[in-house]
Each structure stands twice: as structure tokens, then as C-alpha cells.
């Protein structure tokens, strides 16, 4: 699966999403874009999942019809050590989620 990591997530997280093609927003040259434009560009480039930590994303974006799954990670902080325990569930949720669906992984 082609996965795009949002810019507020630590870049080393990409290494832990084994078996997938993972790029960060920064690597794609899309830093600073608003979520709507970011999702449009990612979909146009063939990304199948967008992983973010922005818990307001579900209120900001209408995902109906988008070809991407959106996964929001919820943890105490966005530090890698707090996010790594979520990786196994994240990988499973990405497989189970359908395009246009937003899922949350973790808890505050």
C-alpha cells in the first residue's frame, strides 16, 4: 500500500510500516499545505492511505468519494516512542479500512 505520513508525525515512523511504500509530506514537497489540498494531491499521486495525528481531521474534511483511507493516530504525544506501540494496530486498520473511510488508532 502507498502511505503518506503527515508532517506532524516523526519521520522515523515510516521505517516501522514494513511492507508498504511510505513517504512523508516533507519528502513529497507538500509541507504547509492545508489538509484538503494535501489529500487531493496525495490521491492524484496514487497514495492509498494518509496517516495523521490531527484529531480534528474528521470534522475538517469530507472524505466521501476519496480513494484514500485516512488513519488518525491518537497518543499522549507525537514522539516516536509513544507512537510505536500503535504500529501493529495501524497496519491492521489500514488493511481493513475502505477508501473514503477515516479510522482512529489509539487513545489519549
How many strands appear in the DSSP assignment? 5
- Between the first and last Cα atoms, what is the distance in angstroms? 27 Å
The largest pleated sheet is described as:
5 strands, parallel
The level of helicity is: 25-40%
Mean pLDDT: 91
Shape: globular
Structural class by helix and strand composition: alpha/beta
CATH class: Alpha Beta
How are the SSEs ordered, and which strands pair?
Blueprint: E1 2-5, E2 21-24, H1 35-44, E3 49-52, H2 57-60, E4 69-74, H3 80-83, H4 87-96, E5 102-106
Parallel strand pairs: 1-2, 1-3, 3-4, 4-5
Using brief descriptors, characterize the structure shown.
5-stranded parallel sheet; Rossmann fold; alpha/beta; globular; 5 strands; 108 residues; single chain
Summarize the structure in words.
Helices cover 26% and strands 21% of the residues. The protein has 108 residues and is α/β, with parallel strands linked by helices. The chain has one domain: 3-Layer(aba) Sandwich (Rossmann fold), CATH 3.40.50. A five-stranded parallel beta sheet has the order 2-1-3-4-5, covered by helices on one side. Helix 2 links the parallel strand 3 and strand 4. It starts with a strand and ends with a strand.
Short précis:
With 108 residues, this protein is α/β, with parallel strands linked by helices. 26% of the residues lie in helices and 21% in strands.
